[in-house]
Known about the structure:
- This protein is α+β, with helices and mostly antiparallel strands.
- The chain contains four helices and two strands.
- Strands 1-2 form a two-stranded antiparallel sheet.
Amino acid sequence: TERPDGTTARPSISHSTLGYKDALRASVLESPEFHAAVQRFREAESGIRLSQSATRPQISGSMSTSAFRFGEDGTVGSGTAANVTLSQLLYDGGKTRANIAGATARAYAARVGIDVAGNDVAMQAAVAWRDLWEVTTLLGILNEDIAEVEKILGRIQTLISSGLVDRAAFASGQRQLLDLKLEQERLNTARR
């Protein structure tokens, strides 16, 4: 994939192995929106060159061959004619300058479009990165909580078997453990 500066971008890679800045950069360079904006800019730059071409000398040429008869005796002859024309625009009432200015303005707008597309993609990637970080952090905390509740339920089970605690405490702990595991599953689904 070619970048606006003419260098080639890396092929698509897993952004989870990259740091934050590199993942944002890769997201921008790989996005179709960014590439479309770059293409619009290149087209606008071509429009400038096309508009400027009217200020340069223009050359055109043509050539033709023909056969013809001479006189009463039917003598046949042939000939070739060539024509080369060189022209230079002297004055067109400012039309060419206006065309160049318009093409330049479109190129500036397209260049801004690259920045806008890049910023939009970077913002979306940053939000996704933040969401992933948040879910991963919550899952870590949740996993610790589940392990702790399971330890406590094991202790409660021991106290129940020795007759020191009522089974209702164990049932309440199991409900809390189930709630934590449901939340864990929801977060795992959200992370995918």
